[in-house]
């Protein structure tokens, strides 16, 4: 597990995260790519940040968990950047994505956030 990954995510939570990203893509708004995600977090325009675990070099996304915690923005992890890119509706990988407007994914994001809080307190 890369050093920036703060907790283990279950397969169910990962699937739910992909579903939330896909729903937000269709009915809300995404910020795709680490530069866009960083700007969204710094401006507090992110409802949920999703970070891939297989990013090379890890320095590309290593700062994201820390700034998310600083700005009190929930974040979670998924295993593969290819799958994250696909969920975003792009043909290339995505190291990270921020859901900036939830659209119909609002309830899913709330549920994901609650699960992540539980994971963080048990780790």
Automatic annotation (TrEMBL):
Cellular location(s): Cytoplasm
Domain Ribosomal protein eL8/eL30/eS12/Gadd45: 17-108
InterPro entries in alphabetical order: eL8/uL1-like (IPR050257), Ribosomal_eL30-like_sf (IPR029064), Ribosomal_eL8-like_CS (IPR004037), Ribosomal_eL8/eL30/eS12/Gad45 (IPR004038), Ribosomal_eL8/Nhp2 (IPR018492), Ribosomal_eL8_arc (IPR022481)
Family label: Belongs to the eukaryotic ribosomal protein eL8 family.
Task performed by this protein: Multifunctional RNA-binding protein that recognizes the K-turn motif in ribosomal RNA, the RNA component of RNase P, box H/ACA, box C/D and box C'/D' sRNAs.
Subunit structure and binding partners: Part of the 50S ribosomal subunit. Probably part of the RNase P complex.
HAMAP family (alphabetical): Ribosomal_eL8
Protein name: Large ribosomal subunit protein eL8
């Amino acid at each position: 597990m890369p050093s920036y990954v703060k907790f283990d995510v279950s397969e169910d939570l990962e699937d739910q995260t992909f579903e939330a990203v896909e729903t937000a893509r269709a009915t809300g708004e995404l910020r795709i790519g680490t530069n866009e995600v960083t700007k969204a977090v710094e401006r507090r325009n992110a409802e949920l940040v999703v970070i891939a675990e297989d990013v090379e070099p890890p320095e590309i996304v290593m700062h994201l968990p820390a700034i998310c915690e600083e700005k009190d923005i929930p974040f979670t992890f998924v295993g593969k950047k290819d799958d994250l890119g696909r969920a975003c509706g792009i043909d290339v990988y995505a190291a990270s994505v921020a859901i900036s407007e939830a659209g119909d994914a609002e309830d899913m994001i709330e549920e994901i956030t609650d699960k992540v809080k539980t994971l963080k307190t048990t780790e």
